[in-house]
Design goal:
559 residues, alpha+beta, 3-stranded mixed β-sheet, 12% strand, disordered C terminus
Amino acid sequence: MVVESLEFDNDYALSWSTDMLIHWKDTTLDIQTYEEEYLWHSEVIDIEMLSKNDFDLWFKIRKGGDENVDSTISIAMKNAYVDVRFLTVCSILANSDDIPRVKTYIDALLEEKRLYPTGTIDTQVKSINQASQLLGIYIRYKNFNFSGIDGEFSWQKKLLENYSRKFSQKMVSGRMYAGWYNVSIDNEFVQLIVSYSSSKWRLSKRWLDILESNIYSFSNRVDIIRDFRSLIDIAKKTSEYKLLYSEKITQEIEIYRENFIESMEDLINKIENINNYHIVNSNIDQEIIFEIAELASNSFLEDKAKFPINMFNTIERDKSELIITNEIYAIDFEKFYIMSDDRPLVNNLVEGCGQGVASSLRTIVLRKIVTNNPTSYKSFDSLDNMLFFILNKIEISDAVLLCHQSISDLIFYLLNGDEENLKKLQITKEYSEEYFCKIGGCEVYDNSFNISDSCILTTKERFEALIIEDFEDNNIVDISFSENEQDRTKGSLSFDYKLDIEADKSKPFIRLSLVPESIESDEEAVEEHMDAVIQEELYENKVTSNMNRFLKFLLAYRK
């Protein structure tokens, strides 16, 4: 009735329908539930929970106390009554541009105060007159503990859809949306709660206790934080606060908004601390650690045509105690990805981390390849001269060119140039997963050497065997996690491995360099370039790989 009266601009009907909604509670909700409301997490109880036969959930709500069906139903109805008043106010805000006209009805609904007093005394008045109360009602409305399909199709969403449908001819774009799965009151809620933020405020201890309890999961609290940050963004972008403009000057309104933002940020910090405490006190899920190691091992070994594994004639795994254990670290790895208790679902975590470890191992193998001592050095004053030299060495069977990015860029530029020149240099555009072109019969590999303006000309025949020693679980990596001392929500994810290479050092391993014309000898060129060596990932005990890029993606998703 309230919404219908507003729709037809009937203030008389609007007044009486507002009183009818308030009076409805007095005639129906007369069961005393003081004790249960105090002892239970009663604020979170919603009428849709009554249809859920979830013993574990109700046990958490009652804090292990005895069941009381009558009190449960009464509390659910009382909460629903408050929610209806709250949602009705939001709907009025969304569908009325004449705030001075509807302000009286908004205040009456929030304060549970009749516009036409009957002379009787209303009992159990539950006035909504604080920002912290509004936020508690909003948390219950959002159904964060039923994230997913249940939260999207709640009775509150259906009610708002019915409200918005009645105003379908008056809907303001960007405020209320047709389609009950899309209805949002966030803009209206921000308008409302900012108007109650004359000073900074705190969420009630009872609601904080609920958020800290196991009613809400780790992921639920992450969703709450994300939602709260969205409310802050709305507040920052909102230029007109229509519940305040008739009463406050611009400077005062800005104070209200800042009080809201600071209060929400303080609350977000508290919720993050709750989750951080959970992370720190959770064990590591060894099963997921094993799954990552297993996938990394299989990925590394399954495709022997993948560079740089394709450089070796054989892979040997039947030797022991030949190779020392090494570690590669993923620094600042978020512990919650692999914690055993209440771990949030992260799609493709095992696949992403496993592939990253396999990529890291390939980089380690490449590092072992390129740290071989060159059999000779050659320097050139132009790329063409270097390429002609490579063509003259094509009699080397299975020749490969391992390029620094600077050389690769020059060759890429050449590939887009004159076709006659490409033909003269016998360069063919054979883009594959491993190499990006051929010079004669020589495969050219991008970003596979770490000294600027240099590359290595060698042959696959030089590398006879890749030797790998398995761990006890038959994986070729052993993964472990160690917490950071400064921030125990993060740590180092280490990948232990045992491998070595066998090389025929009689086969060519020639370092080619592009140098300025002022440098006259190959030996001088070598010294010049050794002084300019950039300590990149191939020579560090830390590999910037697909693994690290994947972790950066996960951190962005969380935020």
